[in-house]
Amino acid sequence: MYETITTVQGRLVADPVVVEGRGGPFTKFRVAQSERHQVRGEPGRWADSDPSYYDVSVFRGLGENAARSLRKGHPVVVHGKLRVRQYPRSDGSTGVAVEMDAHSVGHDLRWGSTVYTRNSDLAPAMPSEGATAGLPDLGDTGFGDPARDRYVVEQGPSVPLGGSAGDEAAARVDTGPLLPTGSERAA
């Protein structure tokens, strides 16, 4: 059978969700994509087409990084295998779902900038034995390991690139540090 490989540019309609599957945890999110076109007969006026929705599944390390990095509203570029699936609805009609198994995912840099951080430079996804002793249970991100579940990515302070802190011409970026989850986090 042939596979359909495609690239979709759009925005996340909700935060990614980590789901436990038969082969282990994976990340799911939904991307909305629409085209912008000029309104016929009205020069200078633009309109968006009705959105198309894609249900994206991301596996292994890519899925974990997507769960750490992506949030509702982020512009993304997703490349992967496309599937169109029909399913029965409760009212007896047939629904259609467009699904992608992502091979690569990234922020769409037309709309902003991002900072790349190697996995080895992040706080350990799985702290060493005893490193979490005495810490309160701070929540579950769904990866199934309490030591790993203690960390999430949050938007960090902006830092200038290529200039001093007072240099207003310098670009501003988010550092995105890993922080503990839950109410124990500093305000």
TrEMBL record:
Do the record's keywords include Plastid?
no
InterPro entries hit by this protein: NA-bd_OB-fold, Primosome_PriB/ssb
- Give UniProt keywords alphabetically: DNA-binding
Asked if the record carries the keyword Transmembrane, the reply is no
Source superkingdom? Bacteria
Q: Map out region (Disordered) in residue numbers.
A: 123-187
**Which terms in the Gene Ontology molecular function aspect does this entry carry?**
single-stranded DNA binding
Q: What is this protein called?
A: Single-strand DNA-binding protein
- Lineage, opening ranks: Bacteria, Bacillati, Actinomycetota, Actinomycetes, Micrococcales
